[in-house]
Design a protein that fits this description.
This protein is of the alpha/beta class and 240 residues long. The protein has one domain: SGNH hydrolase (Rossmann fold, 3-Layer(aba) Sandwich), CATH 3.40.50. Strands 1-6-5-4-2-3 form a six-stranded mixed beta sheet, sandwiched between helices. The relative contact order is 0.19.
Length: 240
């Protein structure tokens, strides 16, 4: 059970945020609708985030958490995706309000977190996003060692065919990069791995196979590229 002060801080910050749409590039520590649940063997893996975690517009098997589990394989210790908590349109404040409390019942051994694009789209100030990320990471660290947490960068949706529908592309791309820098810095200060997939997402400007049929979200092929970055990091962290 989390300490009372941390629980209060989570509640206060969640109430201030807005809800909204929807070579390894990583820091390594030294050592479409709503949540989906699956049960199995291995370390209990919970994925936190927004549309990029729940895999809006792709099949369940193509979502990056599902591809990660499949790519990591069976040899001990494997990962068992017990819950994908991602919700289309969620901001960092929404994650604090709805996803972090679910961890009590889910009892994860391993967590990924990818959040922040909707903060940019909805104009959540960088200072508020940073404060929310502090709460998210510190709440996770109260449950798990840093080596069992991975933060994933926000992809750049502005290069997709529908990207301009969600704000000025140049300004929004800069906002995404700024939020990624915040997450990378705060994760690094806490010894949490940060995997950067921003550059992969920008390849969608010239390679439409990396874009889902909705013209906005990543395709299963793009998520597979993310997993190529994630695998060596996750394998090391889970003790392969």
């Amino acid at each position: 059970m989390l300490v009372t002060a941390l629980t209060l801080l989570v509640s206060l910050l969640a109430g201030c945020a807005v809800s909204g749409p929807g070579a390894t590039s990583a820091f390594l520590p030294s050592a479409s609708a709503g949540p989906s649940i699956a049960l199995g063997e291995g370390l209990r893996y919970v994925a936190l985030g927004d549309s990029y975690t729940i895999g809006t517009s792709v099949a369940q098997a193509e979502r990056f958490p599902d591809q990660l589990v499949e790519a990591l394989g069976d040899p001990s210790p494997g990962l068992s995706l017990v819950s994908n908590q991602g919700v289309n349109g969620y901001t960092s404040g929404d994650l604090i309000r709805d996803e972090l409390p679910a961890l009590d019942a889910l009892a994860p051994d391993f967590v990924t977190v990818l959040i922040g694009v909707n903060d940019v789209v909805q104009g959540v100030p960088a200072e508020r996003y940073e404060a929310n990320v502090v709460v998210i990471l510190d709440t996770l660290l109260a449950r798990l060692p840093a080596r069992r947490i991975v933060a994933v960068a926000i992809p750049d949706y502005t290069v997709t065919p529908a990207g301009a529908d969600y704000g000025d592309p140049s300004r929004q791309s800069a906002g995404i990069a700024a939020n990624n820098a915040i997450m990378a810095r705060l994760a690094g200060e806490r010894g949490i791995a940060f995997v950067d997939i921003f550059d992969i997402s920008r390849e969608a400007a010239s390679d439409r196979s990396l874009v889902a049929n909705d013209g906005l979200h990543p395709s299963g092929a793009q998520y597979a590229r993310w997993v190529e970055r994630l695998i060596p990091v996750v394998a090391r962290l889970v003790g392969r």
